[in-house]
Amino acid sequence: MVVGDAGENFTHTALTKAFRFLLEGAELIAMEKDRYWKSQAGLELGAGPFVVALEYASRKKCSFGR
Question: 63 CB contacts (<8 Å, ≥6 apart)?
């Protein structure tokens, strides 16, 4: 399973689905693990907090795709 910049698609439902994939044996791969980024509206969460949440919940370490 690959985590990238999903913007507003990072929802509880999406994270739960990803978590279940991880429990079924999927690997956790992230494109990035940034904490936040600056949009025209101001600072917004990056993918990092969601990656960390999935690592914590699934007890799997993330690897990074390039």
Answer: 27, 28, 29, 30
Give ∠ CA 31-56-64 in degrees, rounded to 5: 20
Q: What is the pTM of this model?
A: 0.86
DSSP state of 25: T
Q: Which residues contact 24 (CB under 8 A, 6 or more apart)?
A: none
Tokens of 46: 């990056």
Tokens of residue 37, six digits: 């980024």
Predicted local distance difference test score (pLDDT) of residue 38:
94
In which residue are the tokens 């999903």 written?
6
Element at 44 (helix H, strand E):
strand 42-45
